[in-house]
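Quarterly update from the structural biology core.
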Amino acid sequence: MFLCTRAVSLLLFIFPISLSAQSPGKTSTGNPVIDWGRVATEAAEANGLINLPIVESRIYAMTFLAVHDALDAIDRRNHSYSFRLRGRPNASIEAAVASAAHHVLVDQFSRLPAVVGLSFEEAFFDDAYARALTAIPDGSEKNAGISIGQAAAATILALRAGDGWESQTYPDFNYVEGTKPGEYRFTEGNPFAFGPNWGEM
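Predicted structure, tokenized:
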């Protein structure tokens, strides 16, 4: 939750957006970045992902990097992280944010059941996405925003594919604790290591 809030706050500092359209959350803040931060956090609370903070923070980071790059493609103010596109100032910001966030979240949450045994929450994301798009007038601006968001999401997903998070064990009860200085030793009463190879991703 804290990392998600920090990521959203940074995006708002870089891209200060003030919108009145209805956004993804049940209660709109008037800002699509904040609203999708809320969607991500509520989904993590619903399926228990908040209890796996390193996995949760990775998904948040990917989501808001995609949102950042989608916004940067519309209004270039900074260096893009991975997706680089110029010359789309007429694209819908709301559609770009919703599309980028939705596509990353759906992809990443869909992997949780097999890796850590948590529910997908697909309907949660699809419902938020449908509400976001319904609030945006149809037309070329909306279509361009959707396209940009999807492309930004695809870029960050491709960049992180195979990074090793899915081969981790959460928790790893077979991990052998160290005995030398600097080697990990179990916390008393908790004979396991949590994602012990996370630093090698």
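The domain at 2-167 is CATH 1.20.144 (Vanadium-containing Chloroperoxidase; domain 1).
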